[in-house]
Hints:
By secondary structure, this protein is of the alpha+beta class.
Amino acid sequence: MRNNNTGGRSVARGNGRRGSAATTGGSKRTSFSQERPARKSRYSAGEGSVKNSAGEGSAKRSYRKSDSFEKPARRTSGRNFSEKPQFAGKRNLSGYNKKSETKAVAAAPKTANDGIRLNKFISNSGICSRREADSYIAAGVVSINDVTVTELGTKVYPNDVVKFNGERIKGEEKVYIVMNKPKDFVTTVSDPYAEKTIIGLVQGKCKARVYPVGRLDKATTGVLLLTNDGELADRLAHPSFEKKKIYHVFLDKNLKGSDMSELVKGINLEDGPISVDEISYIDDDKSQVGVEIHSGRNRIVRRMFEHFGYKVKKLDRVYFAGLTKKNLRRGQWRFLTEQEVAMLKMGSFE
């Protein structure tokens, strides 16, 4: 408040405003007191727009995607957001039915945050990868709550019953196994024409339904990963991802130095050009070589040497995506450690 005689101003803030003014002579003092009502907020404070946590000095704004956007309430002096609203009289509870309210809550509509995509749910169950799940969905072999679903992108919610070929499937705990594959075992889940499959080596000892990541020929031995994590299997096995692999190759004759150089430079096969990352002799025996390659094409190692007229007598994979067969005899397997699983998911082995 400005004093017209002296030009001074003195303001004290409280619930209203109070001030004092003095004349130039100082002998006569006039005091006044004026109450001013608090300013009204331009916007109402809607529920969910402004929250005040106990013990915190300032209000926090919190917006949720499902709520309609509202302008936040404007803070006014003297207002305490933590105070509970006061009702003029007792609340009228006539017609209130607690049981009906419970039913209303239970019947609340499902939100997008509660569910996951159907192909991811199928992949998590260990049946196949997401990409393959999309094909099964489009083929009409998947149902939700006994209703056939063919639309990609459909969501699955906690209480839904999902069936694959008429059998109910559930999300399983992820399992990761490394195996030293023996010779004459087929790398498949089931094969009516195969006498021995690698799944037979883990049946009865591993309750989860696992399947091999990628393929090794029936005659090829070495490192093989099995899991029910469809998303990880797709990343590791698909040829486009080109994960590092190392093979110990036994040839029917010594490998020429010129042919070794050609393999590094690159050669053309019926399905396109190919080259090795590294190649070297093993222990002065020129009929045995170590080959590092990233390609995941079918029978690629055997076909590269057949291109030069060599026959692969024995092929052993000693490294795949950071995993080795250390301390595992032929046909033995073990569960991966948490550190190994984390390494696979992060791709830190490259």
